Amino acid sequence: MLNERNPIPVLEAIKRVTTYYKKGETEYTAITNAHNRVLAEDLIADHDVPLFDRSPYDGYALRSEDTAEVMEKTPKILEVVGHIGAGSVYHKKIENSQAVRIMTGAPIPDGADAIIMLEDTTAFEEDGKSFVSIKKALQHHQNISFQGEDVTKGTALVKKGTVINPGIIALLATFGYAQVPVSKKPVIGVIATGSELVEVDQPLEPGKIRNSNAYMMIGQLQRAGAIPKYYGSLPDNLAESLKKISKVMQEVDFLITTGGVSVGDFDLLPEIYQELGADVLFNKVAMRPGSVTTVATINDTLLYGLSGNPSACYVGFELFTRPIIDYFLAKETIGMQQEQATLAVDFLKTNPFDRFIRGRYEIKNGLLVTEPAGKDKSNMVHSLAKANCFIQLPGGTEGYKKGDQVTIHLLGE
Ligand SMILES: Nc1nc2c(c(=O)[nH]1)N[C@H]1C(S)=C(S)[C@@H](COP(=O)(O)OP(=O)(O)OC[C@H]3O[C@@H](n4cnc5c(N)ncnc54)[C@H](O)[C@@H]3O)O[C@H]1N2
Ligand code: MOO
């Protein structure tokens, strides 16, 4: 019997799914693996950076008052009483008419209050002693990189929930995080359904197609920061599917299937939900593609039934699965970033439902412009390779014209 399906608005569907989100735990990862992970604790500076006043140049540390009378033609001669590189400390105090040869990054010796660059000096030896001729007058505190000028102790540097990038890794290293607290990644099961499917390494036969969705979703899960666990594809066989799905549900944080959610004779997912006693949150969304997207829960664990059509599967994942992964990872921002852009071409198809067109955006003459990445059909795969955003076109209109302002959802890297 064909059950009636009532489409619900996209936002309502997202809301229903997000009530089931689970926040993951914190784990520690080596700093060398921290890129792209989500920071699980605020990063607060526990010391100043730099930790000591230091030299920004290769040159000489001196007392600026010793250079007060330096004129171009009457340089000042100072005795060089020490020589330090970065990592070394000059332990005595610099007295009048003394200088210490110092390299970039070395701590400023006691008594010194300025650095002169090597280029403004001439070094010479006399009677076994080292001297330097200073050709430029210096101000108090000239050329000093001060303690805390970069970061002061106690500063909140990076908020928990931020995705770690190489710049953040530099800060983590600066503050001694060999192990970094990060959100544990959710483990998400992937199952493809359909007797027509063959795997990527298998030859095609009449009537068969290659299973592209499972691999596409593995990529989407990786992009979203989750761990995909692929369980292969299932033929259209109820008993086998039931057994597999109920077993897999025990092993993952949640499960995504693709295909078999529509009304066809071999679309088994609705029956599987019934047999498993699943609570169906929705089975029709007022959108294109992906209107058949179905989400259910079994013992509060989410079970996504995404469409078999590649573009519909892709869109369903990004709209309904990705935010849940963001919640699980305790990310500071949930879901795709949205922008306003100018439509670069006409799009005149009418539709009662909202459309999420696989699009491309770019900046042209300082404006964000967007256009479809290819043909707009839910059973097509080509445009997915070029898409860097979804163009959201609200339904119930006569279509859209070049120049119209539209919302785009950025897919990210
Ligand atoms: N009478 C109706 N027919 C259809 C309706 C409807 O409302 N009434 N909805 C259409 C819409 S919209 C979509 S979308 C599809 C969704 O169907 P399913 O989600 O049940 O998916 P399947 O029927 O299993 O497959 C659809 C299509 O996609 C291909 N496919 C399936 N899995 C994969 C995969 N892993 N990789 C690549 N391609 C896959 C499959 O061979 C089919 O061609 O239903 C419409 N029909
Ligand atoms: O679910 Mo279908 O993609 O609306 O075309």
Automatic annotation (TrEMBL):
Q: Which family does it belong to?
A: Belongs to the MoeA family.
Q: Metal-binding among the record's keywords?
A: yes
Classification from the root reads: Bacteria, Bacillati, Bacillota, Bacilli, Bacillales
Enumerate the UniProt keywords alphabetically. Magnesium, Metal-binding, Molybdenum, Molybdenum cofactor biosynthesis, Transferase
UniProt name for this protein: Molybdopterin molybdenumtransferase
Does this UniProt record's set of keywords contain Magnesium? yes
Summary of the function given for this chain in its UniProt record: Catalyzes the insertion of molybdate into adenylated molybdopterin with the concomitant release of AMP.
Pathway stated in the Swiss-Prot or TrEMBL entry: Cofactor biosynthesis; molybdopterin biosynthesis
One GO biological-process annotation of the entry reads:
Mo-molybdopterin cofactor biosynthetic process
Q: What class of enzyme is it?
A: transferase
Q: GO CC terms for this protein? A: cytosol
Write down the required cofactor(s): Mg(2+)
- Catalytic reactions on record: adenylyl-molybdopterin + molybdate = Mo-molybdopterin + AMP + H(+)
MoaB/Mog domain segment(s) = 189-327
What are the recorded GO MF terms, alphabetically?
Answer: metal ion binding; molybdopterin molybdotransferase activity
CDD domains according to UniProt: MoeA
**Which top-level group of life is the source organism from?**
Bacteria
EC number, as in UniProt? 2.10.1.1
